[in-house]
Every structure is written in C-alpha cells, then in structure tokens.
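Recall the central idea of this unit: under ordinary conditions, the amino acid sequence of a chain determines the structure it adopts. In this exercise we apply that idea directly, starting from the sequence alone.
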Amino acid sequence: MSVFDTTCCQLGEGPIWHPGRGQLFWFDILANRLHTQVDGKPQHWQFGENVSAAGWVDDRTLLIASETALFRYDLVTGDRTDLIALEADDPATRSNDGRADPQGGFWIGTMAKAEPGKPGAIYRYYRGELRRLFGGIVIPNAICFPPGGRHAHFTDTVTQQVMKVALDGDGWPAGQPEVFLDLRAEGLFPDGAVIDADGTMWLAQWGAFRVAAYDTQGRFLRAVPFAAAQTSCPAFGGPGLDTLFCTSAAKGLTPEHLAANPDSGKTFAAAGIAKGQPEHRVIL
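Accordingly, the structure predicted from this sequence is:
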C-alpha cells in the first residue's frame, strides 16, 4: 500500500478509473471538488455545491452527481449541462455513493447533509429517466455490480448489512433485496465497494483501516490494510486494472488521531491485488 495522492480530503469518495483516459478521478464531497492527477501532479475542479460520484460518458465527459442534479461535465472546457434534478427541492440532502451499471445506467444514493438526519434514497438514472428504487436509506453506500449484470449490491451503512437485488434485462430491480453480508457481529460498517472480474467484492469498512474482500457467497477472503481509519471507497485501475485505489476521510477525527495517522484523508493505491472490471460507460 502507498499514498497515491497526498491531497487530504475531508470526505474522499467516488473513485473511478476512466478506461479511455487511463486516469483516476475522485471527489472530496465536503470541499465541493473533483480530483485527479495529470503526469503525477494533483489537479482539481471546484464546484459550488457538494459533488460525490461520477460515471464516464466519453473520453472528455463525465456524468457527475451533485446535491441538486445529475449533470454532464466536459473535462476540457469545464462546461456543465444539467440532465435531471436530484432532490433539488430539498436543501438538507446531498448525493453520496454512486456507480454505473453494466446496462449503462447510473445508480446514486442521497442522504442528509447533517448526520443524523432524515433518510435518503437510492435512485437509478437510465436513458433520461430517474427512478427512485429504495427509500429509507440513511447512508447509501456499496453500490456495485457483479460481472454479467444480473445483480446489484448496496448498503445502508448504519444497518451494517450489504444487500443484493436481482436485475432485469434493462438493469432495473426485479425483486426484493436480500441480505448478502451481515457485519453486525463483527461491529463493522460497510462503506463503498467495487467488484472485480472474478466476482469478489472489495468493501471499504469505515473505521477499520481496511478494504475487505468477500467471495460471491459473502465469505471473508482477506483484507488489504490502509493507513487511514475512515476508508470510504475502493476502485480498480491502472494499466492492467490490478491496482486497488481507495479514498479516505479526515472529517470528525480528533487532533490526536490525525497526529498518529497523518495519512488520513489521502487517496491510496495497492498494486497487484486483483483484476478489476473496467468501469461501465453511462449511456445517456
């Protein structure tokens, strides 16, 4: 494990390896920023509201989720084109975890800005339609998709359970979610997750200094340690898709904790971990 980027994020989230650009993007939600590196040098884009997750549309365009909308963003010109409102009428909520699915849709969760607050929801945007899938979600996370596009995973972090739901041919839920992974007995809190090419789930666990791997039956395989307690979301990237990147958060940590763990909030890379799936393209 090494530090990939030394930028300290208050709430790092939403890492995505753009397959066309060969470039990692991620967010600091509370700083309203999208981050990347160009030739090893940090670069960021500043927004006027919370931004949290993205999918790639083409080699210069991202679909970005903010506290008010899903929008197209041109990485070259900085032009923003709003596609659809996302709880824009509720200033108390923001977007959180999100990821593109194999069918070309984009799943995104919402939650209260002030924790604890009223529950948010998980939505899916697909070919111009935004549909609310699951309500009553306090902290939506772990949105990820096994190879084949037949299932989706998500969690409400406070429940300490990761769910699994079947999908139809267009990627919409085709049944009721069921428990895939129950971490209550271990006292672990699931955060962001990604699934590799073999179907293994790599799950960040908030407060545990790690990303843990679980097989297709939810059995623990191994854990990759990181030098930050609040690991928030993993992503596979690099030329061979075999580097496990992970964002983290410094928010809420005491000065004593930060002094003992100075890499808190940074973005990490662990090479040679597993073979990831390419990030799916969002079809607008």
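The mean pLDDT is 97.
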